[in-house]
Amino acid sequence: MNISYTFLMVYGLTIDENIFPAAKFSNIGMLLNIALPLVIAGAGLIFLMMMLTGAFNILSHGDNPEAIKKGYATITYSAIGLIIVIASFLAVRVIGAIIGAQLLPQ
Asked: What's the total number of domains in the chain?
């Protein structure tokens, strides 16, 4: 009766920040410091494009009341979206102040 055992060797791995960039994030605050300004800048660009599209629809379709309503609706929705983005930014600031963590870059 032969009994054989297989032993697995477990190696400790070092995660190098140069090879694996996600290792730079040791907590959620560091991730938010990078991601949130990018998201806010993207929201600002989307707001600008929507405002220009709505204004173009109003100016180019002066005799069509449906197109003018669509242009005004586009401008309204873009303003509401920007207000939501600013409110979320302020909410993250307030939550960070309450828990005493710096969630956003200064």
From this structure: 1
Residue 1 lies inside a defined structural domain of this protein? no
Spans of the chain, pLDDT less than 70: 1-25, 102-106
For residue 92, CA distances in Å to 34, 43, 44, 80, 97 come to 14, 16, 18, 18, 9
4 in any annotated domain:
no
pTM: 0.64
Domain of residue 46 covers 26-99
The DSSP result for 44-78, as a single string, is HHHHHHHHHHHHHHHHHTTT-HHHHHHHHHHHHHH
Neighbours of 101 (CB within 10 A): 13
